[in-house]
Amino acid sequence: MHHKTKTGFPAILHNLRQSGKNRVHPNEKVHKRGHGQLDAQAKLLLFVNLLFITAGALSGTFVNVYLWKVKSQFAPIAWFTFATYLASALTFWLAGAWVKRFNKMNVLRAGMAVSALFYLLVLMLGTKVVAYSALLGLVQGMANGFFWLSFNVVYFEITERDNRDRFNGWAGLLASGGGMLAPWISGYLISRMTDVRGYTLIFTISLVLFVVGVVISFFLKKRQSQGDYAWSFAIHSLREDTNWRWAFGALAGQGLREGVFGFVIGLLVYIATKSEMTLGNYWLITSAVGLGSYYIVGKWLKPHYRKWGMFCGALVMSAVVSLFFWKVSYVTLLIFGVAVSLAYPLFSVPIISTVFDLIGTNEESAKNRVEYVVLREFGLDAGRLTGILIFLVVTSFSTSPSTLNWLILLIGTGPLIAWFCMKRLFSRVSPPPASEKN
């Protein structure tokens, strides 16, 4: 019997369905892909990740600018960011039971849906947005918590030690690509229209991308976790497991920097230039550099080079903060952004891969992957919240350039703190070079 060959869009849908059906359970040891390669499900997850990040970058890049234009103060923006990370941590913990007992793909879709709701609320509130900045932060934190909890669990299930660095390299590369084009497009549109029309348009585009992401996510195979959710697992692990205490410290060091730098740098660029278009150009340039760096790191950084690769990245990221003591201008901010974009993949790929290798140390730990992903998020958010609280306390007393410079320098040492903690784990967790396996 002859079967009619599917072509065009129907063929794409057919292949996506088949990729989900043919995927083996994450605990099985049968693999059809080549050594270190990514299968169809991993590539599909990368695409969903790209849509989520691009939609967020398109509108989210300018939320802080929008808040600043309504009320030129750091505090509302810092509280918005603080509420975002607080809600994210709580959502990770509470939604962990949902992910463990039911379909985790519905959690991922909920993250996209709540993200769409967040941008609708920003648009509806208009100039009242500052008064509700903390509440909006809680909504965005819920969205991020839902999406990244599900994403990280599925990521763990469809990758292994031999292809985890490759996946993270591609994830970073695609994120840099989305982060490169989306803010530039937003800045261009806003600068060519009135603020209301420009922001309305980019929020609408984001909504469409979130909807497309939800549709594509249905082609990811449903994965059912087994067992009961352990609510106090994080506390027990930190008390009993030395490796996870060091990992938690490293993640907190990473988060210490991310919490503050995540909103301060873009805001400083806008304050220095008063132009959304220039801010878009800034992210275009720095993300383009990051894209190239992620490609190189994902392709060439081997597991046994993680320790010193991460050290080089952490050192550059911490040292380049000294530029702020010279002069805060668009030029110095651009030099800073390019240097960080070059170094960040060296820093982030080793820590992400090693922590997930730690989760997959053995079959027993892999069964608790949901709880470990929650613990990982707790570490990051502990650092983020600490950094933002330090920022809020210090800026409540003084916002002078000198004070801000020393504050940024202090918080900017987070990557070195992370490396100091992680270096104890690389030899214990990372796989040895291929020559040592025989």
Q: Kindly report how far apart the N and C termini lie.
A: 49 Å
What are the segments in which pLDDT stays under 50 over at least 5 consecutive residues? 1-34, 434-438
Name of the CATH architecture: Up-down Bundle
Number of strands: 0
Rounded average pLDDT: 81
* Gyration radius from CA atoms, angstroms: 21 Å
Return the string of H and E elements: HHHHHHHHHHHHHHHHH
The oligomerization state is single chain
Roughly what percent helix?
A: over 70%
Strand content: under 5%
Number of helices: 17
- The CATH class is identified as Mainly Alpha
Q: By CATH's scheme, which homologous superfamily applies?
A: MFS general substrate transporter like domains
CATH topology: Growth Hormone, Chain: A
Number of domains: 1
Which structural class fits the helix and strand makeup?
mainly alpha
From the spread of the alpha carbons, the general shape counts as globular
Largest sheet: none
Would you spell out the secondary-structure blueprint of this structure?
Blueprint: H1 8-21, H2 40-60, H3 63-70, H4 74-101, H5 104-125, H6 133-158, H7 164-192, H8 195-217, H9 233-240, H10 242-273, H11 276-300, H12 306-319, H13 330-359, H14 363-367, H15 369-397, H16 401-411, H17 414-429
Membrane topology: Multi-pass membrane protein
Pfam family, one: MFS_1
Subcellular location: Cell membrane
Distinctive features:
single chain; 438 residues; mainly alpha; Growth Hormone, Chain: A; 17 helices; globular; disordered N terminus; MFS
